[in-house]
Amino acid sequence: MSAARSLNALRAVAVTATLPLLLTACGYGSEAEKKDEKPAGATASEGGQKLSASEVRIGYFPNLTHATALVGLQEGLIEKELNGTKVKPQSFNAGPSEIEALNGGSLDIGFIGPSPSINGYVKSKGSNLRIISGSASGGVKLVVNPDKIKTLDDLKGKKIATPQKGNTQDVAFLNWIAEKGWSVDPESGKGDVSVVRTDNKVTPDAFKQGSIDGAWVPEPTASKLVSDGGSVLLDETALWPDKKFVITNVIVSQKFLKEHPDVVEAVLKGTVKTNEWINANPDKAKASANAKLKAESGKELEAKILDPAWQSILVTDDPLAGTLKTESEWAVKAKLLEKPDLAGIYDLTLLNKVLKAAGKPEVSDAGLGAK
């Protein structure tokens, strides 16, 4: 599948909507969307039964791979389902800090990648979080300097950036290297390929300066590198059997889930409806994500970066649980994680209730559901 996957081609995918670790410096978009173009009922609904919590604290990253959160919050689609329960959004720049907030009781629900979800679950011995929904797939690419690297075999001896040691992209790249028969020390990143752990906000400058030869990174960092002269050598979707893999989950504090299941269910109604709206209104949804991230960072992302980045991400209600299991196995293989017990990491009961009510197929926890 090409890196510039068409949004329209993805509209027929079941339980998904078309539109994913870390943009921290770039913002988005325009204010082109007019008020009358927003979805009907974009404010908190009036009437209806009050829910059990007065507020719900929702965390997310300012990333395209968190499009469900960005658009759902921007358009009021999540708030609309909460019958007066106030949404308190919180933006994070890294998985560990979001997990810390969830574990520390200052966050209730979060959008986050698979690696921090696994790490947070394992470190708490299964006591602090549950994955309750999927959010996004794809949006990860290997971008290289085409003057130095023309084929995948040319990566040997080169310097390739990943966002962080042990993060989702780092683990995937280390696994790819191992499958090539090459050797890299997972701690230092030294070996047949030099894996350089670099924050995504500085990776484009490092690429332009020549201190790295390429990067295995999520969107829109990947498209930013392409705009700076890079070439997409590999789209990670090509490595997965169904061209899909989890890049963003929705997680919840187990305490909040136990005490306020009605609020969690309402949030999931909002995320499912947000994904539907993204699918039905891809251009408006892209502008909505732009507006939300511009409000946070004060910066826009140019169309030459935003458009290909948006096209390569698939928003999905399905958590793609089997791919999370595979990613955990890769981390174990890379010696970045001891073999984890992931039994109970998922609780898809409320999501499947919402999907069934909406006439959509239920989704699987790949045998990792709460008993």
Roughly how many Å apart are the termini? Answer: 37 Å
The helix content is 25-40%
Q: Which stretches of 5+ consecutive residues score pLDDT under 50?
A: 1-47
Task: Give helix and strand order, one letter per element, not per position.
Answer: EEHEHEHEEEHEHEHEEHHHHEHH
Q: Which class best fits the helix and strand makeup?
A: alpha/beta
Radius of gyration: 20 Å
Strand percent estimate: 15-25%
Number of helices: 12
Q: Major sheet: size, sense and barrel closure?
A: 7 strands, mixed
Instruction: Give me the side-by-side strand order of the main sheet.
Output: 1-12-5-11-4-2-3
Give the mean pLDDT: 87
Number of beta strands: 12
Shape: globular
Molecular structure report:
- With 371 residues, this protein is of the alpha/beta class.
- Helices cover 34% and strands 17% of the residues.
- It contains twelve helices and twelve strands.
- The protein has helices spanning 67-74, 95-104, 114-123, 168-179, 203-209, 221-227, 254-259, 261-280, 282-297, 303-311, 321-333, 349-357, and strands at 16-18, 55-60, 86-91, 109-112, 129-138, 140-144, 159-162, 194-197, 214-218, 231-235, 246-253, 313-316.
- A seven-stranded mixed β-sheet has the order 1-12-5-11-4-2-3, sandwiched between helices. The protein has a five-stranded mixed β-sheet with strand order 8-7-9-6-10, with helices on both faces.
- Strand 7 (159-162), helix 4 (168-179) and strand 8 form a beta-alpha-beta unit.
- The two termini are 37 Å apart.
